[in-house]
Amino acid sequence: MTEIFDSVKAFGNGFSTTFKHLFKKPITEQYPEYKRPLPDRSRARIVLTCDPDGKERCVACYLCSAVCPVTCISMQSAEKSDGRRYAKWFRINLGRCIYCGLCEEACPTSAIQLTPDFENTKLDILSLVFEKKDLLINSCGKDKDYNFYKYTGIKTNSGDKGTHAFEKKPVNVKSNLP
Ligand code: SF4
Ligand code: SF4
């Protein structure tokens, strides 16, 4: 008896929701004429951002590539004469990407970021293989002020170790000897 009562109650609950919506004005969004603004944290098209000084952020550390669960990121690292590392080439196969955001989480320089731009469907699957020139944007993206080389104690032409904001002078390891 209790089971019959529970079943009738469950049906009643389900149909009450249906009936409530029968008398409401339907909401129809006319996509693509109207595009609902998505939050900044939405995970879609991937970009490579630049530092506030306009230089490439990516230091080709391979962390995003290592963490990617579908191994769709590949690159080759190189170093400039001023000491900055960079990716000689950088490739993401967006046809395989599952937009999990792990690459963005792993990136120490805030270079790789996912954006709300979800309109990336293509008939030709190979055109979803994005090269560095397709990924690089002239903007800091979400992290406007962060500059990896100003916080991480790496010597470049723009400053020596320990000379940047919030950095301490390098430790003299010999001073720790007994
Ligand atoms: S969003 Fe996920 S699947 Fe896509 S490239 Fe980044 S780590 Fe790989
Ligand atoms: S995008 Fe970030 S995590 Fe990936 S190689 Fe460049 S610096 Fe490293």
TL;DR of this structure?
This protein is of the alpha+beta class and 178 residues long. Strand 2 (73-79) and strand 3 form a beta hairpin.
Write the layout of secondary structure elements.
Elements: H1 2-22, E1 46-48, H2 63-67, E2 73-79, E3 85-93, H3 102-106, E4 112-114, E5 129-130, H4 132-135
Antiparallel strand pairs: 1-4, 2-3, 3-5
Kindly describe this structure.
The chain is 20% helix and 13% strand. It is of the alpha+beta class and 178 residues long. A three-stranded antiparallel beta sheet has the order 2-3-5. A two-stranded antiparallel ribbon has the order 1-4. A hairpin with a 5-residue loop joins strand 2 (73-79) and strand 3. The longest helix is centred in the first third of the chain and has 21 residues, at 2-22. The model has no long low-confidence stretch (mean pLDDT 90). One iron/sulfur cluster binds at residues 67-70, 72-73, 92, 97-103.
The percent of residues in helical segments reads 10-25%
Q: Roughly what is the average pLDDT, rounded to an integer?
A: 90
Strand adjacency order, main sheet: 2-3-5
Q: What is the chains' assembly state?
A: single chain
Distance N to C terminus:
83 Å
Q: What portion of residues belong to β-strands?
A: 5-15%
Strand tally is 5
Please report the number of helical segments: 4
What is the N-to-C order of secondary-structure elements (H for helix, E for strand)? Answer: HEHEEHEEH
Low-confidence stretches: none
- Distinct ligands, ions and cofactors found in the model: iron/sulfur cluster
Please state the structural category: alpha+beta
Tell me the Rg in angstroms: 25 Å
Most strands sheet:
3 strands, antiparallel
Shape: elongated
